[in-house]
Amino acid sequence: MNRVVVTGMGGLSPIGHDWDTISRNLREKKSAIVRRDDWDHYQQINTRLAAPITDFEIPDYYPRKKTRSMGRVSQLSVRATEVALEDAGLRDDPILSSGDAGVAYGSSTGSTEAIGRFNDLARHGSMKNITATSYIQMMSHTCAVNLGLFFEIRGRVIPTCSACTSGSQGIGLAYEAIKYGLQKMMIAGGAEELCITEVAVFDVLYATSVTNDSPEMSPRPFDRDRDGLVIGEGAGTLILEEYEHAVARGATIHAEIVGFGYNADGAHVTTPSSDMMGRAMEISLEDAGIGPEAIGYVNAHATATELGDIAESQATHRLFGQRMPISSIKSYMGHTLGASGSLEAWLSVEMLNSDWYAPTVHLENIDERCGDLDYIRDGRTMSNEYVMSNNFAFGGINTSLIFRRMK
């Protein structure tokens, strides 16, 4: 088995596009949640809260030939990946088109604006806004395909379209591709663009936060007064590399991926299974060859929904006991859906290497139904060798990643 390391990281998030900015916002407990007054005309949507990225434009030097097949979700993923490749020192490396490099990347869906054009055809018979690239923008594997085209990747392309685990599943499957000797390098992660249609998915389930007049107080993962999640957007990319290959070229290694757990509930499409969440974590530990006592911090999925928070925290408590430090990044940037697993993995590695861990903001009164854990409510300094990042998705899809600090 090959060792797999992280040699590049990059992302775009509602609270920043680099670790210095994001770290400052985390330390200041600064949330990106805002009220969207422009959503007032959606009268049957209850929430008005979101975490948008307000300062993103694709670089001028991106050629039109390569951008015309991209909707916003692909644009976000390409830019995040470019930053990660630059961080890895691989932006123009011949390995990208050698066949030894691949892509494992996903989102919940393709660009919804392009999907709307086909709806105009189905509902109104109009082809007016459909172009030759509309389908490429809307298809579920648009991120993986556009990354492959933009960076001229000739290795395997693995689209991971699994809702909230798209990003973490991408990282996990990329890790396995290198671990089992199928590729030397992988672009891995996930992305999502903000759209009212994705908000509606959760709003119709009464799962969205409706504290519309006080956006600075939501979402509230693990809090007894939580009232639901907030949708955000973003993209996160990790460059994974076979350890010996990375060492041979003198790469900076951010961390080693040592464990990936991945399973399904096989029970209910939206109600999570605490037992199977816990089993995914156990599989990750088994893959890493370590016991629960080795993990020093858990980055929780923790969307601020009642069923999810309770099931996840109880599973975490059963495995690790009350001593486990845990927090939720979603309390700052909302639920970025397909991007969440990759953004949270990136920030888990950054926190691992900085010896500082972000608290869950807005957590004032821990829900007594949640598992008995060490909920981080103020930034904490601690040194760890291993951290775990967990994500869970509709359809009962569970993922767990373990990162090891490089000494």
- What is the percentage of strand-forming residues? 15-25%
Mean pLDDT: 97
Main β-sheet, spatial strand arrangement: 5-4-6-8-1-9-16-15-10-11-13
Largest sheet: 11 strands, mixed
Q: Provide the CATH top-level class.
A: Alpha Beta
Give the overall form.
globular
CATH topology: Peroxisomal Thiolase, Chain A, domain 1
What low-confidence regions span 5 or more consecutive residues with pLDDT below 50? none
What does this structure look like?
The chain has 407 residues and is of the alpha/beta class. It has a single domain, classed as Thiolase/Chalcone synthase (Peroxisomal Thiolase, Chain A, domain 1, 3-Layer(aba) Sandwich), CATH 3.40.47. The chain is built from 13 helices and 16 strands. An 11-stranded mixed sheet has the order 5-4-6-8-1-9-16-15-10-11-13, with helices on both faces. It has a 3-stranded mixed sheet with strand order 2-3-7, with no helix packed on it. Strands 12-14 form a two-stranded antiparallel ribbon. It is globular.
